[in-house]
Amino acid sequence: MAENFDIQILDSPLSAEAAISFVQSDSCGAIDVFIGTVRNHTAGKTVFKLSFEAYEKMAVQEMEKIAQQAADQWPVDKLAFHHRVGDLAVGETAVIIAVSTPHRQASFEACKYAIDTLKQTVPIWKKEFFEGGEIWVAAHP
Amino acid sequence: MAENFDIQILDSPLSAEAAISFVQSDSCGAIDVFIGTVRNHTAGKTVFKLSFEAYEKMAVQEMEKIAQQAADQWPVDKLAFHHRVGDLAVGETAVIIAVSTPHRQASFEACKYAIDTLKQTVPIWKKEFFEGGEIWVAAHP
Amino acid sequence: MKIELLAFGITKDILGGRQVSYEWEGPANVEGLLLSLREKHPQLADLKSLKVAVNSEYAGLDKTIGPQDEVVLIPPVSGG
Amino acid sequence: MKIELLAFGITKDILGGRQVSYEWEGPANVEGLLLSLREKHPQLADLKSLKVAVNSEYAGLDKTIGPQDEVVLIPPVSGG
Question: What is the pTM assigned to this prediction?
């Protein structure tokens, strides 16, 4: 993996501080950080928890591709990309993406690209546990 | 101040963790955080430090206006907006903006609006100390 | 062709396990596998999408599958 | 009109202090103040912009200024 990327799938709580420390760079003036957290409701249902599973080997590879694509499109100095697996309670963090760039516009665009693309290509699946049932998110049309 | 905003001008180091904790919300799935840091160069010059001063009373008011304008345009649940004053070394954090929203797109847009508007309206001034001189940034055409 | 198939997300529930031995007649490629699977497990046809990864890369329908390949069912992803 | 004027950023350097007593002839409003200041301190005319805040709100040129108002010079801001 390129040494300016820090890509991890973890079954323990994620740390925004760790992601931010990794991307800090004296040559950069901007860091954008996206944090995805577990909401207490979705589509009008009360959610108790989420459970994430990953095809880890491929998920890490796909996250690396995304980081590289971001670095090809914007002047990314460093990028941290951490995703949690296992059971997550409401309020816990599922994903953190931090990107450092010389100027701010690129940090927003690269970070947004990474989270948008994660949701399309990275083999990670989320099961929602709500009042009265459970469902694999997005599985059906 | 609206209780869902945390607006501060500080002469001590800023904490991303504090800003993120403030905006965390069980009803939100997204937090975007922008961190502005001191770069070691600008326009080809080596920068040693920056010094920020603020017309604090008005700066806080203008930051509150920005937070409110963001909340008027996007479904912002909470917003933290911290700016540092005094002398900052290379790598230190000058500003942190954290925004929580139900979904991710709004978090990016509201955060970007806040930092873009800060740079236009908030009475804070930055002096750059570089090899061979010092300059009030953006003062002259 | 007979392979060990890995299934994630909802496909694990439909196939009844993370790793299942799976045998099919017909072409030894992704298309042949998917045709057979959808016939045997009609619920797979109800998914919004169903991709196959071979050796941890997304594979096209004409990708050949051998007994040594790591073959994985990828239902619609939902990370983040 | 005579007021205590607060100056930040480069205007502090140009006027020689954070707080200066300033007296001018002519209209007791923002426009009158700025005209007088630019005449006395020509460097102020070189700035990219120069705004005035009265009681911590940006003020238009016709905003009247009284002795009790807090009047502040706002050169181009550069926070963040």
Answer: 0.96
Say if the Cβ atoms of B32 and A28 lie within 8 Å.
no
Q: Could you read off the pLDDT of A40-89 as tens digits, one per residue?
A: 998 889 999 999 999 999 999 999 999 999 999 999 999 999 999 999 99
What 8-state DSSP symbol labels residue C43?
G
Give the per-residue pLDDT at A88: 98
> Distance (Å) from the C-alpha of residue C49 to the closest C-alpha of chain A?
8
Cβ–Cβ below 8 Å for A28 and B20: no
- Nearest CA of chain D to the CA of B102: how many Å? 26
Which subunits count as partners of chain D given 3+ CB pairs below 8 Å? B
Instruction: Tell me what percent of chain B is helix, strand and coil, each rounded to the nearest 5.
Output: 30, 40, 30
* Gyration radius from chain B CA atoms: 15
Query: ipTM of this predicted complex?
Result: 0.95
CA distance B22 to B35: 15
Q: What's chain A's average pLDDT?
A: 97
B31, B47, B117: best to mutate for the A interface, most A CBs within 10 A: B31
Q: With contact defined as beta carbons under 8 Å apart, do B116 and B130 qualify? A: no
pLDDT confidence of residue B1: 65
Q: How many CA atoms lie within 13 A of A87 on its CB side?
A: 5
